């Protein structure tokens, strides 16, 4: 625990059906590794396809062609591959987080009503973005006398921002009591899970890029989507909110809250800490009172090389294999969003277009990045293909190769994720040994869009938080105790 802990102004309620940590009391009935859950969490949209195009009305009142919501399809079916059934992970049960983090379990305050967006304004019209608009009807409602839905799982305390009516990445809990503004850090399923076209519980604040994805892929009513620009202050419910670049995936943001009493809270969502973050004025000024930290790789064994070094290794490896066998198909595994820098670098170095399916092309074009959009191709004759990360396996790629009728004679595939990091290879990327079977070679490369252990330490030493709440891998007391010990060590003497 960081030194100098402070009590929060308005602790939020914990319902009776939760344990002392704000988690459901139901015990888990199945188990799966965190890495397995992580692999599944961000790739669901990779296997979507667009339905027939139809007319819809734009914000200006004119009709325009649009692709509409995407619908699920199976790439395994498209390739003629039998996909094994997948078990769903049960909720994780946790104990004693309140005690470990020094947070008291308070009585519930009276519920508060949602406020309309017309009350949201900026601190100054010259330097800050103002949110305005007609009054919204945000809140619970029943249509045509339909019965209320089944009571959802209660929202854990660590997704609530104390002293505010805000939650972060808390969409699978229905209407959260006392919450009038829902923040979304980025568009990965483990963070937006629970959002559907039926969402009606309150405004969703996120970056403009994430807002486009939420509207395009989830068909959320535009009335509830509130895009915010990076590095711009907004006053929402009396709290000054600023989004910062998270260096994670397109549209991901750190969320900085400054309360009326001057206390500052920082929620990292998912992020890859970098030296450039230390140059941001908001993080250079003052001390963070409460830090919600992405602790995906908060383990001393994870010491990733810089992203630039991994990309350079991938490009050199691709060039070497193509020199040996010019009819090699290069495959990069990726989530629905994320890893773009890897396959963009290959495309630039080899001077070949990037082929992927229509649903991913639609997503990539929505970023509005000209340098990427001009390299995306609908022609599968290109020697560079992007596929869902989960499909980058020997048998799948063997069958995928067969669908190309001898145009390619071999596959060189890359799995760019921190989970492939090997302590034996460490930062010596040339020591990475590929997995080869027949005509398919797969490299696991430690290209991570989450912070390494050492990067987490450097980040904490810079922001000097008074209290740290880890948001990942908190499923058992041993993990929590280890992480708090790391935090204390990093912050000792600061």
Automatic annotation (TrEMBL):
<feature type="region of interest" description="Disordered">
    <location>
        <begin position="101"/>
        <end position="147"/>
    </location>
</feature>
<comment type="similarity">
    <text>Belongs to the DNA repair metallo-beta-lactamase (DRMBL) family.</text>
</comment>
<keyword id="KW-0234">DNA repair</keyword>
<dbReference type="GO" id="GO:0005634">
    <property type="term" value="C:nucleus"/>
</dbReference>
<dbReference type="GO" id="GO:0006303">
    <property type="term" value="P:double-strand break repair via nonhomologous end joining"/>
</dbReference>
<keyword id="KW-0539">Nucleus</keyword>
<feature type="domain" description="Metallo-beta-lactamase">
    <location>
        <begin position="152"/>
        <end position="335"/>
    </location>
</feature>
<dbReference type="GO" id="GO:0036297">
    <property type="term" value="P:interstrand cross-link repair"/>
</dbReference>
<feature type="region of interest" description="Disordered">
    <location>
        <begin position="45"/>
        <end position="68"/>
    </location>
</feature>
<protein>
    <recommendedName>
        <fullName>Metallo-beta-lactamase domain-containing protein</fullName>
    </recommendedName>
</protein>
<dbReference type="InterPro" id="IPR001279">
    <property type="entry name" value="Metallo-B-lactamas"/>
</dbReference>
<feature type="region of interest" description="Disordered">
    <location>
        <begin position="1"/>
        <end position="31"/>
    </location>
</feature>
<dbReference type="GO" id="GO:0003684">
    <property type="term" value="F:damaged DNA binding"/>
</dbReference>
<dbReference type="InterPro" id="IPR011084">
    <property type="entry name" value="DRMBL"/>
</dbReference>
<dbReference type="Pfam" id="PF07522">
    <property type="entry name" value="DRMBL"/>
</dbReference>
<dbReference type="InterPro" id="IPR036866">
    <property type="entry name" value="RibonucZ/Hydroxyglut_hydro"/>
</dbReference>
<dbReference type="GO" id="GO:0035312">
    <property type="term" value="F:5'-3' DNA exonuclease activity"/>
</dbReference>
<keyword id="KW-0227">DNA damage</keyword>
